[in-house]
Every structure is written in C-alpha cells, then in structure tokens.
Design brief:
93% helix, mainly alpha, 70 residues
Length: 70
Amino acid sequence: GAFRSAGAYQVAVPTTMILYSLVMAVGVNFMPMVTTLLHRNEKELLAEGIARIYEAAFVVVLPATILMAC
C-alpha cells in the first residue's frame, strides 16, 4: 500500500543521492586527466584507464548490491 511506497521512496532517494555524489566526485577528479589524454591522442591509455575504473566499480557495486538485497 501507501506505506510500502513511502518506505521505498525513503530508501531510494538517499541511495540515489549517494551514487550521484560518487559519480560527480569521480568525474570532477578524472576530467582533467581524460582531457589531457585525448589532447595527446593517447586513446589506448585512456581506454585502459576506463576499463580499470569499470572493474573497480564492479568490485564495489556488486557486493553493495548483494548487501542491499538481503
């Protein structure tokens, strides 16, 4: 009912804000490096760095998802 929807909203909003803050923090810190690598035409190094970021994100997000599901 209505209480269940309100409860889901109370969990979803803070979780979304935390994820948004993390994405913005990473973006702000890595944007100068990305711009420099693109300017130097070092696309392979950039692709490798992005792949490592995806791997690290997966290692963090998967356990967090499992913990939230329990």
